[in-house]
Amino acid sequence: MKFIDLIPNICEGFPFEKGDLVLLNFWGDNEDIEILELISEALSKKGVAAFKHQCSKRFFEKSVLNFIRNKNYISEEYFEFLSSFKNVVDIFMYPPSLPEGILEEEIFMFRQSLAKLFDALTSDKKYYIQLNVPTEINASRVGIEYEIYKDSMCSALAVDYKELKKVCKDRIESLKEVKTIEIFTGEACLLKLNVDGRQWYADDGCGDFPSGEVYIAPIESGSNGDLCISQVSFNGQVYYDVHMTFRDGNLLKCSAEPLEKFLFSLPDNHRILCEFGIGLNPRIKELTSYSLFDEKALGTYHIALGMNSLFGGENQCPFHMDFVFNSQKVIFK
What we know:
- The longest helix has 16 residues, at 107-122.
- By secondary structure, the chain is an alpha+beta fold.
- Helix content is 31%, strand content 29%.
- Helix 1 (3-13) packs parallel to helix 2 (33-44) and helix 4 runs parallel beside helix 5 (107-122).
- The model has no long low-confidence stretch (mean pLDDT 95).
C-alpha cells in the first residue's frame, strides 16, 4: 500500500465542503510536488478550491536567508495573506529545521520568521489539519523504523472515513451527559476525572492524521488519583509500568525518574492533566510507541498534560504531551 494511492481516500476524510477555499502548505521539495498536486486535484473533485504554498528547503536556504542577510524581515503582508485562510492543511515531507549554511548570528531572526509563519498558518482557523507523509525523515524524527512507520501509517490512513465519522459522532452522543470518568489501570490504580460541563470533540479527519479519536478537556482542578501506563517512550528510552499520581489536576509524581525530572523542570501549568481521549481507528493494529499515532488505535485511551485551551479548556501554554494506555475498566457517570 502506497501513500500516494491513499490520497483520494484521505481527502474524503477532510471536513471541507463544496465552495470552500483551502490553503495547502507543503513542507517538501520539488521531487515530491506530485503529492501536493494530487491533493489539490482530489479536493477539486469535491468542489473545494486549493491555494498551494510550498515551504521547501531551498525556500528557506535561499529566499528567507536573503531577507535575513539584508537585515530585513519578510513583509507583514505575506503573513497577513496566509493568515486570511480559514482552512489550512499542513503537509509534512519533513519537519521544519534550520537551513543549511545558516550562521549562528542569523538563527534568532530565522526563528522569529518561522514563528510568524506558524502563527499565520495555525491561529484563528476553522480547520487546521496536519498530514505527516510516511517518509524516512518523519520516521526517524519519532524514533520508529521506516518500514513499520510507513506500513502502520498507510494502514491507518486507509480507514473508511464515512464510517469513522459516524462512529465518532455516535460515541460523543453516548457520552454527552457524562460528568465524571473513573479509570482503572494496573493492579490497584484509580484515576477520577471531572468533566462536568465540558464538550467532547471528534478527530475524524479534521485534526492530525491519522484520524480516529474523541476527546475532552477535564476540569483543570478536577483530576485525582493514580494511573499506571504500561509503556512510555521518552527521549529514545522506553519505560515500563509508569505510575503517575494526580491531585487537584496537577501531576504530583511520576515513577520514571528522567521523565519526572523533565516535567518538573517546566512551569507548573505544563503539568496539569488537560485531556482524556478514546481511540477509535480500527485500522491501527499495533502500537508503535509514537503517542500521536497510538492514541488513535481502537481500544486505547490517553491523557495529556499541558494545553487544552484549543478544545474547551482553560489552560493556555505552549506544551502538550500525550500518554497512551489500556484499561481493564473505564466507568462513565
